[in-house]
Amino acid sequence: xxxxxxxxxxxxxxxxxxxxxxxxxxxxxxxxxxxxxxxxxxxxxxxxxxxxxxxxxxxxxxxxxxxxxxxxxxxxxxxxxxxxxxxxxxxxxxxxxxxxxxxxxxxxxxxxxxxxxxxxxxxxxxxxxxxxxxxxxxxxxxxxxxxxxxxxxxxxxxxxxxxxxxxxxxxxxxxxxxxxxxxxxxxxxxxxxxxxxxxx
Length: 200
Ligand code: ZN
Fold this sequence. Notes:
The chain is 44% helix and 12% strand. With 200 residues, the protein is an alpha/beta fold. The chain has a four-stranded parallel beta sheet. A two-stranded antiparallel ribbon has the order 1-2. A hairpin with a 6-residue loop joins strand 1 and strand 2 (65-66). Bound molecules: zinc ion.
């Protein structure tokens, strides 16, 4: 199929198509939309991308991504400094922040242990986490990791490493999602929900 647009536009479409959730069709639609909204959207987007490129860094304390280092969360004096929430990815940190779930600080591991994919402890920020626990002496470490085999393997590995520090280690509850119907849940989730039932 011959390209309907010049090489510059084709390049824009190809780059947009690499974004998660965008296939070639929607990338083409997004490119067209950007071009039509040149002043309103494309110019500010280009400026925002340029700023992000220049200013955004990985926080040296927690691994969050921000335009300041240490990040906004780490420098927020209203945060409970006795609690560190351990997450696999920055996206998980942002999800917890969006939910306003907890007013604590975080530690981003950069993934989870996965022997099958060749991800070992040295590929994650586990050493830095252990050092942080020794230095900051939090009273609680919340392992907010995925309820997958890799997530739980990582949780056990971290728990073993910091056992001697005496810090209380907790993990997220597994169970019925808010608004969820029992009939639709898988057996694993239902069993976990029964096991982890709480007083009413
Ligand atoms: Zn930070």
